[in-house]
Amino acid sequence: MRRHAFETISLGDRAFVFRWREPVETAYLAARASAIAGLGLSWLLEAAAVSGAIAFYLKPSCSSIEDAATELIGLWNDYEAVNPPAARRVELPVVYGGENGPDLEACAARSRMTESQFAELHAAAEYKVEMIGFAPGFPYLSGLDERLEQPRRPSPRKRVPAGSVAVAGGRTCIYPNESPGGWQVIGRTAVPLFRPEEREPFLLKPGDAVSFVLSTELELREDGEKNTFFAPETPALRVLKPGLLTTVQDAGRAGWRAYGVPAGGAMDAWAMRRANLLVGNEEEAAVLELTMVGGSYLAERDLLLAICGADISPLAAGDPVSLNRPVYVSAGTELSFGKLNSGCRAYVAIAGGIDVPEVLGSRSAEPRAGFGGGGRPLAAGDALAAGAPAFRAEALLRALRKQAEAADEQAAWRSVSWHAADDISSLAWPGGEGFTLRIVPGEEWEEFTEASRERLLDAEYRVEASSDRMGLRLAGDPLIRDGGTELDSHSVVAGTIQVPPDGKPIVLGAGCQPTGGYPKIGHVIGADWPLLAQAAPGCRLAFEAVTLEEAEQAWRRRLREHALLKAGIGLRFAQAASKGEAK
Predict the structure, then answer these.
(1) Which residue has the higher pLDDT, 96 or 52?
(2) Alpha-carbon distance values, 290 to 279, 315, 348, 494, 527 (Å)
(3) DSSP 259
(4) Which end of the chain is more exposed for a tag (fewer CB within 10 A), N or C?
(5) What does the alpha-carbon distance between residue 372 and residue 350 come to, in Å, rounded to a whole number?
(6) Interstrand relation of 209-215 and 89-96 (parallel, antiparallel or unpaired)
(7) Integer Cα distance of 63 and 363 in angstroms
(8) Cα(354)–Cα(375) distance, rounded to whole angstroms?
(9) Tell me, what's the pLDDT at 576?
């Protein structure tokens, strides 16, 4: 076989990268990735270029990295890549130091300069956009003077303001929106880099030239009321109490990782899909994702809904409602949630799907960047519309309504007698205290000490309260990387286990950034991602090493189980339609 200029490296079992052995322009790789995405390969979800590599993400139906990579290599020389677009020049005013650059003083001291000298030298260079990643519109800029090179922070900040200009290693960057971050923040610009409401959402593209201009005043743009209430003309559900964190989520937005946009979507995609199937929706329709504390909601019209995932003690009109089955709820009924009995996230699907505007091809909320699904978690007073139910869902709703009205009790709600089994709950430890997650080694696995690798597989870790959709921060014995240089930012996926310099592992979730700079000791396999979604703060996690082949076998088993579940639910709907009842 012809030896190519790149090597194939797995990124867990749901993605892989082609990494070039010699330096290559990212703008060229971006054009290559775009051309590949246009081939219509059956297994390819999306392709995104990063520094020196292209990452390829698999569709759920694909279970073999080897097969996908072999097909792609066979096609590699059969087409020409589109030439990179012409580079543009962009000037950005920056206020250095003070509250806008809290790390400038320490950076200047490490470089043995005054703050003014550091800022002037930083602004004197011309930078090149090597790639976009980490967050929507987040540029990685080469061209930093070697005298200004800085280490990443030992532990990432939980909040870096939008517009922050930062340095790490031999690069500089700009945070387009408020987010966590581990770079050294030296200044801030008011120019927005990500504008989802515009035809061209991203200010910068790979290959663009960027220069910073010293400024003394930060003129932040006023966007008015960004997070408005949901107020459809004909609502289906109204929020009385939103719970701890309730957002609109679907299967996520594919095709935008190259611009730093997280794939996002439901943390527990299989629970979301199961809930949608139970109400006759397409599997990827938008649902509500409830985290730990579910809140309460008012049905504005008769609804057919299903609740899957975590058990947060759902109630309809004060009566307990079972999980994993279709439920008819009459107009005016309150749907509420109480004690968290197991898991972390529950999913509420409504026949017709939650109807909010699509942004970049998805209805999923991305609260950190303030777009999609309303751009924020739900709040009291919000109202949600739903699409038109499928015919079979409407038929089931009518049958359940008829049964409820014929019963002696008040006709507030009714459910079917059958349910769709939850295959995740059986994998929890006794008492729901935690999970064992299967992992495959990450690219930097061998760079960690032998003791650290053994510790990861022998010890237990506890999920910290600061965990979120972006990642689960774990408390436990630190993992030590034995040497190794500062890494260029590289592709990461849900399930990637990153290890910052403080040694505390972070397991990335569905809302994770497309790229990261911390070493990857391992990846939680795709079949176990639902367990990550259901690991609440305080939950204990253990890790078990498996081979890539075993990971792919586990994914195929999950696909088979889901196919059987889908067929079974379809049969139930057909029986209900033919008999005019909902048993």
Answers:
(1) 96
(2) 18, 14, 8, 19, 22
(3) B
(4) N
(5) 19
(6) parallel
(7) 26
(8) 15
(9) 73
The closest of 330, 257, 349, 310 to 49, measured between CA atoms, is: 257
Distance of CA 483 to the CA centre of its chain: 30
Which residue is it, tokens 């679907």?
Answer: 250
Q: Is 309 left (phi over 0), alpha (psi -120 to 50) or beta?
A: left
What does the alpha-carbon distance between residue 538 and residue 533 come to, in Å, rounded to a whole number? 13
Which spans in 23-166 are helix H?
A: 26-37, 65-75, 104-110, 115-124
Tokens 């938008």, residue located: 286
Q: Which tokens belong to 264?
A: 């996002």
Secondary structure of 356-402 as H, E, C letters: CCCECCECCCECCCCECCCCCCCCCCCEEEECCCCHHHHHHHHHHHH
Confidence at 578, pLDDT banded by 50, 70, 90: low
What's the number of CA atoms in the CB half-sphere (13 Å) around residue 365?
A: 23
Q: Please give the Cα distance from 56 to 11 (Å, whole number).
A: 9
pLDDT digits (tens, 9 = 90+) for 375-386: 899 999 999 999
Instruction: Report whether 208 contacts 90 (CB < 8 A).
Output: yes
Predicted pLDDT at 582: 47
3-class SS at 308? strand
